[in-house]
Amino acid sequence: MSTATATEVPTRKQSIAVITAGFGQNFVLTTVSTFMLVYLLQYAGISTAGIGVVTVIITAAKIGDAILDPVMGTIIDMTRTRWGKLRPYILFSALPVAVLSGLLFSVPDTSEPLKLLYFGVCYVLWGLAYTVCDVPFWGLIGSAFADPVARTRVIGKVRAYGAIALGLSTLGMPWLARLLSFGPETTGRGWSLAVFLTSLAGMALFLLAFFNTRERRTTAASTGLSVRQLVTTLVRNTPLLMVLLGSVLGFGRFLVQAGGAVFVVIAYGDEGTFTLVGAAIIVGMVIASFTTPLLLSRISGRTLVIASSLVGAALYLGMYVAGFENLAVILVFIFLTGLTLGIFLVVQATMIADSVDDVERRLGVRNDGISFATLTFVSKIMNALAVLVFGLFIVLAGYENGVEITPVMQNTVFAAITLVPAVSCLLSAIPFLFYRLGGPRPRAGAGPDTGTGTGTA
Asked: Exposed end of the chain (fewer CB within 10 Å): N or C?
């Protein structure tokens, strides 16, 4: 394989590129994850039975995508081009993700079986394209930033601006869809136009991760790896395995995002109320994402993630006890759970990056691709489980568009976004007890943020 002449890129320029790329990517992902069920129920005319089929399609596709993530990571680690092993996939996946995102919100007006077939094909293709863009993006963060302090700071900002993108999508997409409906009411066509427009813009920003970054060049990073080497080092990476197990058990953290838009329709009769719920969790996530790198200068990642899990469990249980009748109380609880979620997401990615460095030190192998594929792997499993569980609670409650809302229906769905996350957070804390890497990091200001990167290619 050819190798490009080394060209260094300033760390600050790389940081801005990666953070902006993550913002664009997260806007697209949030739009699809948050509004897809609402679109299918309210505008595509899918019945309760059809939603049951949709949840099965989404769950099966996400599990399939998750299984493909390590395959994608392996392909990345075996790739050698003049652009490196990660950046080419970022370049060639952006447009397919944008187009398929729009198609998901363009279900044709036909019989329900054909609608479900259309949705299933588009969703499977979307998941495949998103895998191709997401795995190398997170691997690039680990590769481009050799300094752990700078890397932790970038991860925090990627998570923070990702939460801001989540907020802008959550708050803005319903209004943009209504605006592009060109009438007094929101239509399915309005949603289609809004998603096409924002997806193309978001993935255009994502391309900055290709143009303005360079991958790290080390002996371990530039050596071709076999599948056997990759699998062996992955299995021997016990800290990484503990992060993965703890993450999967904590899938309940994603239930508010997976089902919050539907819940507010059932509980409050207005999907616009989700803008308040979304704003509360997003503000919490943004604050936590910016401050977690500072906390990591005083507290180990292990202690911080366990504490956030236990506090999160208590908050979800408290929210269930408080009930949903008082929206202001719910918003306070949602904000606080957003803080714990933001902490978890930053520490999770930081722990995986540290485990990659640890394997390189111990075994002489740098496997960014397959290791960070596990991050996207568990994220998809967590999302799949969240959608599946929430979908099952919807079916159990008997909700579909146009039915009479009952207190039993409301309480059933409310339990899905409170009690399930509480139990999930408690279980999530257990594997992290066995994570042994690292301690408090140097303060974020201890290292410069204006130097040049070590990455080339």
From this structure: N
Give how far the C-alpha of residue 232 lies from the chain's centroid of Cα atoms, to the nearest Å.
27
Look at the pTM and tell me if it is higher than 0.85.
Answer: no
SS (H, E, C) 86-132: CHHHHHHHHHHHHHHHHHHCCCCCCCHHHHHHHHHHHHHHHHHHHHH
Amino acid identity at 300: S
Average pLDDT across the chain, whole number = 86
Average pLDDT over residues 250-263: 87
Backbone angles phi, psi at 11, to 5 degrees: -55, -40
Residue 403 phi/psi, 5° resolution?
-80, 160
State residue 250 phi and psi, 5-degree precision. -95, 25
Q: Given pLDDT bands bounded at 50, 70 and 90, which one contains residue 453?
A: very low
Topology of domain 11-433, per CATH? Growth Hormone; Chain: A; (1.20.1250)
Question: What is the C-alpha separation between 336 and 151, in angstroms, rounded?
Answer: 26
Strand, coil or helix: 85 = coil
Q: What is the end-to-end Cα distance of the chain in Å, rounded? A: 12
pLDDT at 9: 83
